[in-house]
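User: tokens in, sequence out, please.
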């Protein structure tokens, strides 16, 4: 009876170690997936920050370039679109997408 109890205790220790290792591996996989998602979301935030920055600068009540031009809205939109595209290109080259 004592031998069987010792064997049962050893088996529970072995299965406990196996379960712990499996849970650690699963936690590592989840952490890796979370890192990838956060990296993509950060990249999207960077891309969307440029049009916001350009629009906020041109929303100020001071003299700005292209302010009195009839095509000022188009110029500002082209500038923000170009900044966004260039940031997408840089992030694509760095494999953030």
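Assistant: Sequence out:
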């Amino acid at each position: 009876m004592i031998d069987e109890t010792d064997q049962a205790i050893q088996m529970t220790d072995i299965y406990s170690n196996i379960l712990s290792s499996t849970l650690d591996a699963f936690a590592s996989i989840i952490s890796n997936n979370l890192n990838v998602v956060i990296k993509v979301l950060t990249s999207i935030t960077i891309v969307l920050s440029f049009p916001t920055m350009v629009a906020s600068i041109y929303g100020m009540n001071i003299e700005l370039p292209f302010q009195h031009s009839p095509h000022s809205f188009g110029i500002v939109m082209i500038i923000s679109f170009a900044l966004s595209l260039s940031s997408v290109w840089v992030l694509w080259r760095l494999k953030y997408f």
